[in-house]
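Human:
I keep going back and forth on a fold encoding question. Comparing notes only helps if you start from a blank page. Show me how you would write down a chain together with its backbone fold. Write it directly below this note and I will take it from there.

Assistant:
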Amino acid sequence: MSTAIDARAAGLRDRLRGALVAAAATPMTADGRVDLDVTESYYRALLASGADALAVLAHTGRGPYLSLDLRASLIARARATGAPVLVGVSAGTAGRSAAEHAKVAAELGADGVLVFPSDGDRVAEHDAVWRAAGLPMIAFDLYTQPCPPEILRRIVSHPGVAGLKTALLSDAMACQEAIALTREADRLALTGEDRMFGPSLLWGAEAALVGVAAAQARVTAEVLRAFRGSDLRAFDRASARLDRLAAATFTAPMEGYVQRMLWLAADEGLIPASHAFDPFGPGLGDVPLTAKAVFA
């Protein structure tokens, strides 16, 4: 497959280079209700705190669990902020294919889609998404379903793929290889490596799409700014601070990170405490995580 990139994908690639894309959570009450006004206010707060763009309905946003109507409403509220918006799409969500979800995202004005890994033919799925929606795609290499290098090479060579988000958690070698393959194909390497954030930048990542920015966009953005500068000590300090945050939030049980980020978002005043619940994650007890506990 040719590595030639479509102009639409190239446009998103260039627009996101150097950017922090916050993988936004979806604030919910304990019984799973979503207040759209609360959510839009939260989206805007992330952008004001240092995020350059939003990824909604991704893993952090519990996109695969949400109804079609709610998904559409969240996309519309994200679009209302005026920032670039990526939408998470996956097969099987609400009984629809990833391509069908991508088509809806395109109709609602999304700038691109984050294509969740699947158990089937991943190359064919990306092609189906592209044909259905014509939206630039960010491919996704996730630690629970890592992509073989030979398949990954074909995916990042697809004309509609603007970049790749790696979220391999602790596999440094696979992360380095994925970043190298992405850059060889002239696509954007986005780090989703909350636990290897600083190192992944040193390995060649040129942007970030991370769940840790769901509550601490400013702390995350500081690492990117320091990396682009010339002060090595500033980068070291910023990375160490982010590492403390990631160690406290991305830990066993790993699926609990969404609840931890919601607790921190409430602690930061980004959302009300009444909407700091993740009904889809493991129970973590009743003592919320606070920034004071993380950075003490």
In short: The CA atoms of residues 1 and 157 lie 7 Å apart. The longest helix spans residues 232-249. The chain is about 45% helix and 15% strand. The chain has one domain: 7-295.
